[in-house]
Amino acid sequence: MSKMAMVLAIDLSVNHFSGGIPRALESCTELQYLNLSWNAFGGPIPASVANLQSLQSMDLSHNNLSGAIPVAFKEMKMLQHLNLSSNNLTGEVPKGGIFASLDSSEINGNIGLSGTWINLPPCSHSKHRQLSTSRKVIVPLVIGIAIFIMSILLLAFSYRWRHANILSLEVGPPRILYEELLDATGGFSEENLLRIGSFGSVYKGILNNGTNIAVKVFNLHDEKAHQSFSRECNTLKRVRHRNVIKIISACSNLEFRGLILPYMSNGSLERWLYPCGGEECKLNFSDRLKIAKEIAEGMVYIHHHCFVQVIHCDLKPNNVLLGDDMTPYITDFGIAKLLFGNSMDSLTSTNAVKGSTGYIAPGINIFVFL
Predict the structure, then answer these.
(1) What's the CATH number for 9-144?
(2) What's the CATH class of domain 178-368?
(3) What's this protein's family per the entry (predicted)?
(4) Which of 19, 39, 131, 190 lies at a 20 to 30 A Cα distance from 11?
(5) Following DSSP, what letter does each residue of 309-329 receive, concatenated?
(6) For residues 323-335, average pLDDT
């Protein structure tokens, strides 16, 4: 782990790992998601875990962790989800930070914990000893059942992805109503129109809270636009990288499909490489090299390090947006392909030959004629 500084997610749940939580975790400085649940980790929780300031979700439930909860956890500004249930933790539950919004179910099963402010009873040591004995019998049984259930769920998940086209934004994005988008974009007025693409148009907008957004509105008269909307949602909700556009939310009803994305004030890379008219968009060699390097990092991530491999299929300057600090963001996953395991099914048909002339990957033609 000491050489995994750039890793974003670690999931070692439902295994038989034991011993203490590795202190080398603190070297994973970019870590956002950590799941060590349903193992046999013991000993105290290392206070150094609090140094992972990018961490957003941490699940240490169903282990044998002991000692007090590190008070430094309340200083983790990015942490939104914490589950410490079903361990042997003791002492007072800290106040403030993540603990202010902590639900009692996320720390239940720790008889040694106390905290009247979170509706926990005072510590009961005799009861704790009885529960500890019971857990030695119950925990292995529960783990076995959990592994069986997860196997069934994984099979169902795989079937769902291969045989259905279902939109599901599981990460719980903020809900933005169609009426809010109308108000934010001036009724999708022409003066707020940013660009027109193959499957719809993109408009600039400002939400009531002052957030600048870009709304990608899909043309529902085109059946391919429906597919593009679902494909972009299913792709972007799985991608977490600093050089890939982040989806804020999605809005969908019988007559409207729209993606809400961050507004990029510097427009597309194409505008800077090939300025039109009197635009003064200039990039020196150093800027170009930096942008190319970061785009490459984003592509390496979606090809090799994402939970599900993503093939963009249409990478070009017009599909790279530049933020306020000229950071590049890969966007427009409307014809992207998701690969499960080592499956190449989605790349071995003529239907896979998509993209813009002059930018389509040369290797695609190889797969077509296999």
Answers:
(1) 3.80.10.10
(2) mainly alpha
(3) Belongs to the RLP family.
(4) 131
(5) EEE-S---GGGEEE-TT--EE
(6) 85
pLDDT in tens, 117-162: 565 555 444 445 455 556 666 777 888 888 889 888 888 776 655 4
Residue 346 has pLDDT above 60, yes or no: no
In whole angstroms, give the CA distance from residue 315 to residue 336: 10
Query: Which residue spans of the chain are classified as CATH 1.10.510.10?
Result: 178-368
At 366, the pLDDT band (50, 70, 90 cuts) reads very low
Beta bridge partners of 253: 256
CATH 3.80.10.10 intervals, the chain = 9-144
- Spatial CB neighbours of 167, under 8 Å, sequence gap ≥ 6: 229, 230, 233, 234, 250, 252
Quick check: is 314 catalytic? yes
Closest CA to 60 of 77, 44, 78: 44
Contacts of 243 (CB under 8 A, 6+ apart): 294, 295, 297, 298, 301, 327, 328, 329, 330
Would you give the DSSP letter of residue 305? Answer: I
Q: What is the pLDDT of residues 189-203, one digit of tens each?
A: 999 999 888 788 899
List the catalytic residue out of 103, 314, 325, 345: 314
Query: In sequence order, what DSSP letters do the residues of 6-48 get, joined into one string?
Result: T--EEE--SS--EESPPGGGGG-TT--EEE--SSEEEEPPPGG
